[in-house]
């Protein structure tokens, strides 16, 4: 969703762009937030940044899962004796590498989703590059990796827990004689949901920090620990789980579909050719 829903006690608000103006409106939960965004920005507002997400997500996800598979089946088995620990370490290493490489692109996606297109600020390649050049000029090249810490804190534990849980679920199903695409889907969806719940606070920190980095104001707290303490002090612990419903609604089916497709394509490509 393009607009950022934040929890401000005692009410939830959604930030929308309406007629070129930034507004905050009180909402009652996720679906009410969707209604407000739809009314203010139209259906397109719910998919703002989708193109950038695909440009970033497809190659990074492909590289991630191929790296994981190579670590799982080739690199780590001779080094780690425990079959339970292998998917955990494979997920952690693969996600750490790919997330670090793609961090500037993730910052770009957050920027596009949190700012409205306008005649003075269109979402074009030129405007994006201009925004990046301005950020580098003002804050240095390293600023493109701001938010990497919270992102790693979210994605690396998520990846490790997800793959360890997924492989455990798959082994359990196989032990009872069940296998196939539906087993992969259920195992992936359940593992993704559990991992999303555990890492939700880090997701909130990552999103807020990257949004603040792209802000024109220099008076925001952007370091991870001070930002965490500020959120806890001003909004309460529940704010660290803001947006958990849409996140799980996205992650559960996405993880299930992704891994079932990967398993299915892998089995198809592994079939011997008799031509």
TrEMBL record:
GO terms for biological process: mitochondrial transmembrane transport. Solcar repeats lie at residues 1-74, 82-172, 179-268. It is found in: Mitochondrion inner membrane. PANTHER family: FI19922P1-RELATED. This is Mitochondrial carrier. GO terms for cellular component: mitochondrial inner membrane. It comes from the Eukaryota. Its main location: mitochondrion. The lineage of its organism: Eukaryota, Fungi, Dikarya, Basidiomycota, Agaricomycotina. It is a multi-pass membrane protein. Keywords: Membrane, Mitochondrion, Mitochondrion inner membrane, Repeat, Transmembrane, Transmembrane helix, Transport. It comes from Galerina marginata (strain CBS 339.88).
């Amino acid at each position: 969703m393009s607009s950022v829903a934040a929890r401000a006690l005692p009410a939830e608000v959604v930030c929308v762009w309406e007629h070129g103006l930034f507004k905050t409106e009180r909402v009652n939960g996720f679906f009410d937030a969707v209604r407000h965004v739809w009314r203010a920005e139209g259906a397109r507002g719910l998919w703002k940044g989708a193109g950038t997400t695909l440009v970033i997500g497809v190659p990074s996800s492909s590289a991630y899962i191929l790296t994981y598979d190579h670590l799982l089946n080739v690199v780590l088995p001779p080094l780690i004796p425990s079959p339970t620990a292998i998917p955990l370490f494979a997920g952690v290493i693969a996600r750490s590498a790919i997330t670090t490489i793609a961090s500037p692109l993730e910052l770009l996606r957050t920027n596009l989703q949190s700012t409205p297109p306008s005649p003075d600020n269109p979402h074009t390649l030129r405007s994006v590059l201009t925004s990046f050049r301005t950020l580098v000029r003002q804050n240095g090249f390293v600023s493109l990796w701001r938010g990497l810490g919270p992102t790693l804190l979210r994605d690396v534990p998520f990846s490790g827990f997800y793959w360890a849980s997924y492989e455990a679920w798959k082994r359990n199903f196989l032990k009872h004689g069940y296998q196939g695409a539906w087993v992969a889907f259920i195992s992936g969806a359940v593992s993704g949901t559990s991992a999303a719940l555990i890492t939700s606070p880090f997701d909130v920190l990552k999103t807020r920090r990257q949004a603040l980095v792209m802000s024109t104001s220099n008076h925001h707290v952007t370091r991870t620990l001070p930002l965490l303490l500020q959120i806890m002090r001003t909004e309460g612990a529940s704010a660290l789980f803001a947006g958990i419903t849409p996140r799980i609604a996205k992650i559960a089916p996405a993880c299930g579909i992704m891994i079932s497709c990967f398993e299915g394509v892998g089995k198809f490509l592994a079939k011997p050719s008799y031509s």
